[in-house]
Amino acid sequence: MEIFEMSGLELAEAVRNKEVSAVEVLDSVYSRIEQFPQVGAFAHVTPELAGQQAEETDRRVARGETLPFDGVPVPIKALTPVQGQPQDSGSRLLLGNVAEEDGGVVTLLKEAGTLMVGKTSAPEFGFPAYTEPETGPSARTPWDVRRTAGGSSGGAAAAVATGMVPVAHASDGGGSIRIPSACCGTVGLKPSRGVVSPGPVGVSGGGLTTDGVITRTVADSAAFLDVLAKPWPGESYHAPRDPLLDSAGSYLEASKRAPGPLRIGLLLEPLNVESLDLHPEAEAAAKRMAAVLEGMGHVVEEAGRPFTADDWLAFMPLWTGSAAGIPLAEDDLPKVTELTRWLREEGMKLSAADYSAAVNAVQTLTRKAANGWSQFDLILTPTLASPPVFPEDIVLPHGADDFEAQKRFTPWGSVWNMTGSASITLPVHRADVDGVALPFGAMLSAVRPGGDGRLLALAAQVEQVDPWPTITAPTA
pTM higher than 0.90 for the full model? Predict the structure, then answer.
């Protein structure tokens, strides 16, 4: 097996057994990055830093001192700080900014032995469901480089899908791990709120966003959740009890357990708009997974919407409020995108009472979802309403139109940021669209928090029964 074909777990074992050196791993990574510039995976690469880490790894392994993921390349999303590295968050406004310290997830990944090979492309401040940064290359799905890789973790998904790296750090505040995973044919897990900490410096804010990873295998997603699921002092949210994790002891071991017969609700109606034209292959992805699940002995039944599209609008003040919180002077506004300006303007209209009402409304929506889906363990939906879109169909000249297009592209994912429960997309389906083979994801989402272990166990079952291609060479 070539280095670029290995999963993170396989590569760690090969380095640990001295079958391949960390320095050789880096040669493969940077060769692969140079081979496929058209997918725009990286905002910038860090060969000097990664080279130092690789040499230290090889010396440590030679002494018989190993870490869980020695020599595994894991790039960091452009929005997350890495000490001494550029930190522009995809915005012209921050060009030249350099991070003074590592984010907490960066520290945990370093402590696990991974190699920080670069920063992956992300859009300005991570707001859009596409990756068109102002400061670097746009991310494209390798299945058709005319189409978006999704966002905001688009560069991470493109890097994993092309075999540049087996695992990439990502984050998800409204679908930003799962959207690009569906576009690029990768595995994307959004953990439950409180499982992965924003500490020791970052805070949870409205509780929408969590860090995670994008991978090609469920086992890698589980193993890297074990790396990242470490609390720091002063947490605002705490990981809910996960019974399967209690018995298994780790997410990786939990992913190997039988989750038991589950009742799963199949939902094809959108959750953030009243109606939409669902692409037949997006629907086929969800129905394909439903058939697989039924074949494994799980019960799949139709699920309805437990709340209205108007209820979903509680998301907006939290999202636009975060844009309003960006410290911008009037002279800075021409330097940011139209979408950022519009989100900020909408957020600046909010009163304290508006924001408080939105927080309450999100919690009310969470109760409606829990009660309306109480008969189910999980909800199954398409991940996206369509194949990966062309940028010109979603990056629109007016912020309100742009955001509406995003809602219709991803009508389910943000709900689980609101409820805080775990959600995973799997690349179970592929189909020709206008003569080009494209991936379609199906998304499994927990009804109640604390189900990450069971969700991973079920996803691993699906992967075993209905595996997917793991490496995609870019096509035009």
Answer: yes
